[in-house]
Design goal:
Number of domains: 2
Strand content: under 5%
Order of helices and strands: HHHEEHHHHHH
Mean pLDDT: 86
Shape: globular
Low-confidence stretches: none
Strand order of the largest sheet: 1-2
């Protein structure tokens, strides 16, 4: 199960994007696209690596909207549930939407807030999922009976979730430092 997940994730998140990037970065493709659509697009206002991070934040905001329906928010070893969980999830989604806008506009304060968000959420997720079992989280989500049993069968594969969250946060923070140069250029130009 884990091997299949890693292979599938590798294909979806590494191989396919790599092939698409290789194909679309060829000079002949750029010339064709420029000839077919000479007007600047709204995406041209933002460097592509920064635009990707803005899309990452938008996807997180959308995830928070769907997560607010469940009414569960795990943070720093505690699981908030009910209205509290939904409100914190909506607040997180609002922050992520603001980060997406700030990144698109190359606002330096958004870069700092994004770095803070990545570090705090990475620490929180790592701590939470190394301290709390998935059964507690699933129970707070209202799962019971056969559904809970099915989810708990996958729980052994979820044991690495805490530490993999730390790795993802570290990689994302490093990527933010790579993006910092675009924000510094925009600040100097303003």
């Amino acid at each position: 199960m884990v091997v299949f997940g890693l292979l599938f994730g590798g294909m979806v998140y590494v191989v396919i994007p790599g092939v698409l990037t290789f194909f679309h970065s060829r000079p002949s493709v750029r010339r064709t696209l420029a000839a077919r659509d000479p007007q600047p697009a709204w995406t041209d206002a933002c460097p592509l690596p920064v635009l990707g991070m803005a899309a990452f934040f938008i996807m997180g905001a959308l995830g928070c909207l769907s997560g607010a329906v469940m009414g569960v928010f795990p943070a720093f070893g505690v699981i908030l549930s009910g209205w509290a969980g939904s409100l914190v999830m909506l607040a997180s989604g609002s922050l992520l939407a603001w980060l997406a806008w700030g990144f698109y506009r190359l606002r330096m304060q958004a870069w700092w807030a994004g770095l803070g968000w990545i570090l705090v959420s990475g620490i929180s997720t790592t701590y939470t999922f190394t301290q709390i079992g998935m059964d507690a989280l699933y129970a707070k989500m209202g799962m019971s009976g056969e559904t809970l049993n099915l989810m708990l069968r996958m729980a052994p594969a979820m044991k690495f979730l805490g530490w993999s969250s730390a790795a993802v946060a570290a990689i994302t923070a490093a990527y933010l430092f790579y993006l910092l140069r675009f924000f510094q250029r925009a600040t100097k130009a303003a």
